[in-house]
Design brief:
The structure holds 2 protein chains of 2 kinds. By secondary structure, chain A is of the alpha+beta class. Helices cover 46% and strands 15% of the residues of chain A. In chain A, the strands form 6 sheets. Chain A has a 4-stranded antiparallel sheet. A 4-stranded mixed sheet of chain A has the order 8-9-10-11. In chain B, β5, α5 and β6 form a beta-alpha-beta unit.
């Protein structure tokens, strides 16, 4: 420590991957470094062909160019270079151009190798950076939080099972002997259904069914399931969305390995999400519901500060919005009787994709049975008004574009929806493309899932139309990724502030790109990660690009959420925006990497779909 | 005579081949004749490199009054109590700085403190007396003043502090008043000044020393 200037130590400590070194290695790195003054006059002295060094820019600005003087990157304080040739042992052919004189720090090959050898995090950083996989780098590790525990880690006992041919009486006897409130119905190691206390009460005793009937007749067939390797949060979301208390847990072969109950989740520490969801579901009237919902923003802020993967906040918020929607529909039905015909409450846009934020507005609609009558229409009109206004009171603001079920334009039967989609698909003007895209991200929040599936599959078939896809590709090609010449950020400025709207200029473009691929593949899933998962293997999108897009999406949505969570009320930067200057060095590098991924995918899209123009 | 010849030769070398050493000394006051040397930092310069890996920082063990400068330098009484004997520090420095051209901001002050410390030591411990003289001296402050005068720029207050000079070359601000930070900051400033002054022509050590 004695021989290391505190300035240098501080700078290193803030610069990835040096920030991951322990104090002993950091000291070693600081003791072994040299500084070089680089200016126009002496720039040829740096990066000699055989001199393999790791370089870190301390001050000044430089352009990295290849042997043909083609620009590769703009280097600014905090930027690293030189490591590709250190890793590969290849001759150095790149050169440096000086924009502004300054100091560049350097380490010799043996120091670099020793640091790599002694620190896995250091090694991994450069391997990732060299493979342009910087987005997988986690910054500093934060404490693990409960919702990221796997389901496998909390299920305690093997599930109690029964064959579907067993009688109801046998089932009840087994439940009583094992003191459980639910049974998994399993044939040949495959889950067939689930039977709970409640089913016995509601489907057997109440209607007076014979106890000799087979379990298959009264069980809930094909229940929602979770997988043992998934996180508790996935289970929580599922329970919240389905409003169920028992979730069968399967292993990777689809065999049941346990049951997760609401109580299991409650027993986990910090289970406020469960409590909040339960409170919302227990609300007996609109007023209580609105009061509970008012706690959501504060709750999310404290929750988001504890989780490592902030993207789960988006899923949680979506889950809560779904729950509130269903609760409002139920409250309306309690007063005005059940829905008079089959219907689906549709969510579009961010709620459908599961990446809602606190600022998201409502985007919803109704899909009604084909034979809906005028008087039935009126019931839905009143219900929709009640639900949309209720959602607004719960903090999910009304849609400025009026894409809401309370607008008669967006209450249609299946044939009318089909006509509407055909209009967009057959005359894909730029304006139509821009306005219709969110409708292709849809999800059934309440109502008849069968009706929704028919509708959605039909739309997916209709949308696989070359001209339509080509026009979407053209639309995407016209969007601007905020990465300018020499990989510099392109910011907007307002007064003294420079910022980038990462929702508009990155996340939306990425969602557009992934939507295009999934329309082309006829997929119906709305969420961007789910779409990417389904696109793996059989798509014009390579698996590598697929992975890159997923990582970029996770990074950007996380950054957007944290920007939003920690944005002061007096913030001069618009919502969904970040000031690149205020980011850490690592975040800046990752943001650039994410933009680069989107830019390349954007070019790929024009190439793959634009040819049909 | 031989020494003189070597010196003459060394001064005719291109400046980038010269032997340069940036220096900064912490004292317990601003009076170079009476105040004690508390700590010394050095960093060798081999243009365009600053050999941070060969930098040194030594605290001198002394029983002096810290005055106000303890606050300025962030040196505590405990740091000083844990320091090395003056003789050890001086002996190491003299060997490192053998034949070096000293680079410092307000070099006169640092050299006076150093000369004073040497004299003091030699007076009390003549058996181990140390003889050292810089090969040459380059003062980044004097060089900056000349440069500004040449450009007919008015020298405003504060403009010639180490931080003020560095700002004109686009360097980051730094945590000043810690000897090693100051020595490195001074080395950076030296290179920036020298490369600008020598741009486009063959600059010798001698010509550069005349500038600073």
């Amino acid at each position: 420590m004695a021989n290391i200037p505190s300035d240098i130590q501080e700078f290193l400590q803030q610069t990835p991957p040096f920030d991951s070194l322990n104090s002993e290695l950091l000291q070693f790195a600081a003791e072994k470094m040299q500084a070089m003054y680089v200016c126009q006059e002496n720039r040829h002295e740096i990066m000699q062909p055989e001199q393999h060094r790791l370089y870190l820019v301390r001050s000044g600005a430089y352009d990295l160019v290849d042997k043909d003087e083609q620009h590769i990157d703009r280097l600014e304080p905090g930027d690293l270079f030189g490591f590709p040739s250190l890793l590969t042992g290849r001759k150095i052919t790149n050169k440096l151009q000086v924009i502004a004189d300054g100091i560049i720090w350097l380490w010799h090959e043996d120091t670099f190798n020793e640091l790599r050898h002694k620190s896995q995090a250091f090694e991994r950083y450069f391997v990732n950076a060299h493979g342009q996989r910087l987005l997988t780098e986690q910054g500093k590790q934060q404490g693990a939080d409960w919702s990221e525990k796997t389901i496998a880690s909390v299920i305690q006992r093997t599930p109690i099972q029964i064959a579907s041919t067993a009688t109801i009486q046998e089932a009840a006897q087994l439940m009583s002997a094992e003191r459980v409130s639910c049974l998994l119905v399993v044939d040949e190691r495959q889950l067939r259904g689930i039977l709970t206390d409640r089913d016995l009460r509601n489907r057997v005793v109440a209607p007076g069914l014979s106890f000799n009937v087979a379990v298959a007749a009264v069980m809930t067939p094909m229940p929602a399931v979770v997988y043992a390797h998934e996180s508790l949060f996935d289970a929580l979301t599922m329970m919240g969305q389905e409003n169920i208390h028992h979730l069968p847990v399967l292993n990777e072969h689809g065999e049941p390995v346990g049951v997760l109950t609401n109580t299991d989740l409650m027993q986990q520490q910090r289970s406020e999400p469960v409590l909040l969801i339960n409170a919302l579901f227990k609300a007996s009237d609109r007023q209580t519901l609105v009061a509970e919902a008012a706690k959501i923003p504060d709750y999310l802020r404290s929750f988001s500060s504890r989780v490592k993967d902030i993207s789960i906040v988006g899923r949680l918020l979506t889950s809560l919005t779904d729950g509130i929607t269903r609760k409002l529909i139920r409250l309306y039905e309690q007063e005005h009787g059940s829905a008079p015909c089959t219907y689906v409450w549709l969510a579009f846009g961010s709620q459908a994709r599961g990446d809602q934020t606190l600022g998201s507005d409502q985007d919803n609609a109704l899909l009604l049975a084909d034979d809906v009558s005028d008087s039935q229409q009126q019931w839905f009109a009143d219900m929709a008004t009640y639900v949309c206004e209720g959602l607004a009171d719960c903090g999910i603001r009304l849609c400025p574009g009026d894409i809401m079920a309370m607008n008669p334009q967006w209450r249609m039967n299946r044939l009318q929806w089909r006509e509407q989609f055909l209009k967009w698909i057959r005359s894909p003007t730029p304006k139509a493309i821009m306005h219709s895209m969110i409708f292709f991200d849809s999800r059934a929040v309440a109502g008849n899932h069968q009706l929704y599936r028919q509708h959605r599959e039909e739309i997916a078939r209709l949308a696989k139309q070359d001209m339509f896809l080509a026009n979407i590709a053209r639309h995407i090609g016209e969007l601007n990724v905020p990465l300018g010449l020499f990989n510099r950020f392109r910011t907007k400025s307002e007064g003294d502030f420079e910022y980038i709207d990462i929702k508009k200029h990155a996340i939306m473009i990425l969602n557009d790109i992934v939507r295009l691929y999934s329309l082309a593949a006829g997929l119906t899933a709305p969420s961007t990660p789910a779409r990417l998962e389904q696109l793996k293997g059989a798509s014009p999108l390579s698996d590598r690009d697929n992975q890159n897009l997923l990582e970029a999406w996770l990074f950007l949505t996380g950054m957007r959420l944290s920007a939003q969570m920690y944005r002061g009320t007096d913030s001069k930067i618009p919502a969904n925006s970040v000031d690149p200057e205020a980011l850490s060095t690592m975040q800046r590098r990752q943001l650039k990497a994410a933009f680069k991924v989107i830019k390349e995918a954007q070019q790929g899209v024009s190439f793959k779909f634009g040819r049909n123009m | 005579m031989l020494q003189k010849l070597q010196q003459w030769r060394a001064r005719r070398e291109p400046w980038v081949e010269g032997n340069w050493l940036a220096l900064d000394i912490e004292t317990n006051g601003l009076d170079s004749r009476n105040d004690a040397m508390l700590a010394i930092a050095w960093v060798p310069i081999q243009p365009p490199l600053i050999l941070l890996d060969k930098a040194g920082y030594r605290v001198v063990k002394s029983a002096v009054n810290l005055n106000q400068s303890a606050v300025i330098h962030q040196l505590s009484a405990a740091d000083i109590a844990a320091g090395l004997p003056l003789y050890d520090v001086l002996r190491e420095f003299c060997s490192v700085a053998e034949g070096a051209n000293i680079v410092a901001h307000n070099a006169q002050f640092d050299l006076a403190v150093l000369a004073n410390a040497l004299k003091q030591h030699n007076a009390t411990d003549s058996a181990n007396s140390l003889q050292w003289k810089p090969q040459g001296v380059y003062c980044t402050l004097a060089a900056e003043r000349k440069r500004m005068q040449r450009r007919a720029l008015s020298v405003q207050q504060g403009d010639l502090t180490l931080a003020g000079c560095r700002a004109r070359y686009g360097f980051e601000s730094f945590a000043g008043h810690q000897a090693l930070n100051d020595a490195v900051a001074c080395a950076e400033l030296f290179l920036a000044q020298a490369y600008r002054f020598g741009a486009g022509h063959q600059l010798t050590v001698k010509a550069l020393l005349n500038e600073g």
